[in-house]
């Protein structure tokens, strides 16, 4: 996977930022929206596409398009850099394959400790009861 080529597949859209900022915010489009079409990417293999679709399912649209936006800075260029960094982190984390969990048994001593603790608790509760005549 070549990250530089993937960056060239990205589409950017400059939008007006929301929130406070006076007259200037109404004239300048500093918010950046990043659009990445996962299914039509020529740089990702089919296996990578399947893995990303599975891992980034909550961040994708119905058409498997990834949408990210940034309006942290007043500068359009800084927002573009920030959103590209976020995108690359998402892709790297999305391509990680988690290790399979190995099932383990509890040790003999831990089982014995648990049973002993249960017996002590039961005894404590028996001693709390009123005596039977």
Write the layout of secondary structure elements.
Layout: H1 3-8, E1 11-15, E2 31-37, H2 46-55, E3 65-70, H3 76-94, H4 108-128
Antiparallel strand pairs: 1-2, 2-3
Brief synopsis:
Helix content is 42%, strand content 14%. The protein has four helices and three strands. Strands 1-2-3 form a three-stranded antiparallel beta sheet, covered by helices on one side.
3D architecture notes:
By secondary structure, this protein is α+β, with helices and mostly antiparallel strands. It is 42% helix and 14% strand. It is built from four helices and three strands, in the order H-E-E-H-E-H-H. It has a three-stranded antiparallel β-sheet with strand order 1-2-3, covered by helices on one side.
Number of strands: 3
Strand % is 5-15%
Radius of gyration: 28 Å
Assign a percent range to the helix content. Answer: 40-55%
Which labels suit this protein?
3-stranded antiparallel β-sheet; 133 residues; alpha+beta; 14% strand; single chain
């Amino acid at each position: 996977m070549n990250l530089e080529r993937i960056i060239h597949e990205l589409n950017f859209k400059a939008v007006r930022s929301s929130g406070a900022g006076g007259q200037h915010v109404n004239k300048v489009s500093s918010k950046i929206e990043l659009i990445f079409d996962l299914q039509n990417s020529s740089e990702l293999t089919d296996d990578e596409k399947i893995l990303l679709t599975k891992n980034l399912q909550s961040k994708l649209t119905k058409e498997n398009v990834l949408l990210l936006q940034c309006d942290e800075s007043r500068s359009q260029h800084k927002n573009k850099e920030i959103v590209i960094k976020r995108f690359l982190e998402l892709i790297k984390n999305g391509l990680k394959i988690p290790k399979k969990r190995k099932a383990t048994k509890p040790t003999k001593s831990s089982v014995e400790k648990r049973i002993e603790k249960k017996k002590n608790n039961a005894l404590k509760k028996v001693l709390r009861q009123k005596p039977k005549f």
